Amino acid sequence: MREKILRILEDYDTQDLHIGTIGSHSALNILRGAKDEGFKTICICREREKAVYENFGVADEFLIVNDYTDLLDDKLQEELREKSTILIPHGSFNAYIGKFDDLLLPIFGNRELMVWETDREKQREWLERAGVRMPRRYDRPEDIEGLTIVKYPGAKGGKGYFIVSDASEFYEVSESMVKSGLISREDVKNAELQQYILGTNIYFSFFYSPVYGRIELIAIDRRYESTADALGKVPAKEQLKADINPTYTVIGNFPVVLRESLLVQAFEAANSIVEVSKEIAYPGMVGAFCIESIFDENATMYVFEISARIVAGTNVGIPSSPYSYILFGENIYMGRRIAREVRVAVEKGMLEELIY
Ligand SMILES: Nc1ncnc2c1ncn2[C@@H]1O[C@H](COP(=O)(O)OP(=O)(O)O)[C@@H](O)[C@H]1O
Ligand SMILES: [Mg+2]
Q: Which of 24, 165, 177, 298 is the most exposed place for a label (fewest CB within 10 A)?
């Protein structure tokens, strides 16, 4: 597959590249960043969302689709190839397209790692090999000790996650979810039971630069999650009566500046995650990645998820985060950092190292 993509790249006019992405998630960030670095931009979106990207003036061109999966359409891809378009993937690529085999366009980053990231088992294997500390996993409901978060296969934090504290509670909630048709009996067997870490959620947006051979911390955020972040507003007495379950639909993000002595744990995790990425999916990590973690009362970091692409949390770092400013001394945010890497790679003749 990689050979195929690199052959497509060979026909590209590297002096007239376009940067393209799907109009959602972090497209404002990506497209504005591309423009700041002198690229022409293409926004692939539905008629409804077009208004937003038009309003902000970040797109030089629009390709209107009925559905994001239309990106797999041959004609549309041909048009993008003719314009020497490099696609910048974000969360909507995983959510709406998923299958990358039919996407015959150069992607900035590593499409194989994006598959690792969407598979819970593979993700755990990656993190375990990297030796990062993770929440414990219970093989059977009977093993549960203390607060436990239940994640069903295919479920997203937005719906279908719940917290229990023992096996009987697990079966009770699962049974009612099966009855209401939310999950199947098969799902109950395959649920991931994870130690619930009570602490502070911290999401690190790193960038691995093949051009400079280094890991860069670009921004840190935390999520504003509904209804998890609303629970504190309801008195405990009423929570009991209303039988509220936290859901984790991300509504927005806050910037975070971390207590400096804690950065070392994050850099250690980032280093080993990048090292292992090279072993599991050649050529390994390229560009943006995010480590989702929780720091407990002892300020110990637990990693519970990883993304091998830009995350929407980086939007808090436009035009600059404290970290990117310290590193670059100028306004650098993730979208711009990506475009900068492409620009410098073109100058150095190493574009193919960034593409898969
Ligand atoms: N082990 C855990 N301990 C405490 N909170 C967790 C744990 N795992 C997930 N969460 C909470 O649930 C949210 C969604 O979980 P995550 O595994 O990131 O699923 P998603 O696929 O929806 O991103 C997280 O942002 C966090 O707030
Ligand atoms: Mg997550």
A: 298
Same domain, 215 and 346: yes
Q: Is 138 in the pocket of ligand 1 (CB under 6 A)?
A: no
C-alpha Rg value of the chain to the nearest Å: 21
Same domain, 95 and 184: no
> Which residue among 134, 148, 161 is best mutated to probe the pocket of ligand 1, counting the most ligand atoms within 8 A of its Cβ?
161
Q: For residue 64, what are the β-bridge partners?
A: 45
340 and 242 both lie in a single domain:
yes
Taking CA atoms only, the protein residue closest to ligand 1 atom 6 is 196
CA of 303, nearest ligand number: 1
Other beta carbons within 10 angstroms of residue 8's beta carbon come to: 16
Instruction: Give pLDDT tens digits for 254-283.
Output: 999 999 999 999 999 999 999 999 999 999
Whether residues 294 and 247 fall in one domain: yes
Q: What is the pTM of this model?
A: 0.96
Residues 233 and 143 in one domain: no
| Contact between 205 and 334 (Cβ < 8 Å) | yes
Determine the distance separating the centroid of ligand 1 and the alpha carbon of 304, expressed in angstroms: 7
